[in-house]
Write a structure and sequence with these properties.
By secondary structure, the chain is an alpha/beta fold. The chain has 2 domains: 151 residues, Response regulator (Rossmann fold, 3-Layer(aba) Sandwich); 152 residues, Glycogen Phosphorylase B (Rossmann fold). Helix content is 37%, strand content 18%. The chain has a 6-stranded parallel β-sheet with strand order 9-8-6-10-11-13, sandwiched between helices.
């Protein structure tokens, strides 16, 4: 790795938004960490696809992954200096990358790979997974792309839709169905009532967006019940204003099912309220306990309170750890 050449970073995922943003967000943070040290770096975004049903095999049984990966995945040398991967689909490639590169590629796997850790240089799981090891760096939540600069830029880009809205502006980030949680029409109705009352009482406005996992009935109900309020409800058409909503908000409400959205919200330093869903999860309970203990979040009780805390910026901490370990490995 010549010092006069840019550090090449591959951000690798299966392309799903919630997974890709973790790999890309950590890669972007690593670029910033490199630049702060006077080192150039560049990102290559890679999306892994598998032929047939090969992608369903456990990584240890996918013995010839480069034969079965789709051509569009472009898994060919020259290999990167740093491989940052997220998601199960990347594992058959991640565990072989150091061999293919002759040990020249520093391999980072986000989340718990649920397999022996010695194939990776660094594993970055959420703390609530309770994984440990010499090459494990646990972080609160998940890596993401939120920075103050990005939020300011996105607010400016959507200024024509946001600038005239009254304060307090309340961002509502709605997730949906998962293994542990769901959003029934009954729960959505109660949520809409609590949100509407608070915004009307404060004379503010609504900034709402939904996840791909939001059930259609819940989405329709929330939209119908809240669309009379001043504000913006993104229906999935046109450019996604997600980062602009975070940047413009005075308060952020996020459903308890999404580690990604809660972590992103907590990185802003703004009051974050957690909205109850149907269902429960011990791991998510531990995650939310940590955020609440840091002063970043509180359960939503229908009142838009204000408080301050130190923004939770674990993505930057993870990037700094990668750079430190990478530098040590090349010394």
């Amino acid at each position: 790795m010549a010092c006069d050449q840019p550090l090449v970073i591959w951000a690798v995922s299966d392309g799903r938004a919630g997974i890709q943003t973790q790999a890309l967000g950590l890669a972007e943070a690593l670029v910033r960490a490199c630049e702060a040290k006077g080192r150039k770096a560049e990102i290559v975004l890679k999306t892994v696809g598998w032929k047939g049903n090969i992608g369903r095999l456990p990584a240890v049984l996918n013995l010839l992954p480069r034969r079965w990966v789709t051509p569009e995945s472009e898994m060919t040398p020259p290999w990167p200096d740093v491989w940052i991967a997220a998601g199960r689909a990347t594992l058959p490639l991640s565990v072989r990358m150091r061999t293919w590169s002759g040990g020249k590629t520093f391999v980072v796997q986000i989340q718990d790979p649920r397999m022996p850790l010695n194939s990776f240089d660094l594993v970055i799981p959420p703390k609530h997974d309770r994984l440990s090891g010499d090459n494990v760096l646990s972080i609160i939540g998940s890596p993401h792309r939120v920075t103050p600069e990005k939020l300011a830029s996105e607010v400016a880009r959507f200024s024509d839709q946001i600038d005239a809205l009254p304060h307090p502006r309340v961002a509502v980030l709605v997730g949906g169905r998962s293994k542990a949680f769901d959003l029934s029409p009954e729960r959505a109705s109660a949520m809409a009532h609590a949100i509407e009352d608070a915004i009307r009482h404060e004379g503010g406005s609504l900034l709402m967006t939904f996840s791909r996992r939001t059930p259609d009935k819940a989405r329709a109900l929330l939209t119908a019940r809240l669309r009379h309020l001043p504000g913006l409800i993104w229906n999935g058409n046109g450019e996604n204003p997600y980062f602009a909503l975070l940047g413009a908000a005075d308060h952020i409400l996020v459903t308890e099912d999404s580690t990604n959205m809660a972590t992103e919200a907590a990185s802003t330093g703004k009051p974050v309220f957690i909205l109850k869903m149907d269902g429960s999860s011990l791991k998510f309970g531990l995650f939310h306990s940590v955020l609440e203990g840091l002063g970043a979040t509180r359960p939503y009780d229908g009142v838009l309170r204000r408080w301050s805390y130190e923004p939770v910026r674990e993505t930057q901490r993870a990037a700094a750890a990668i750079l430190e370990r990478l530098t040590a490995s090349k010394a």
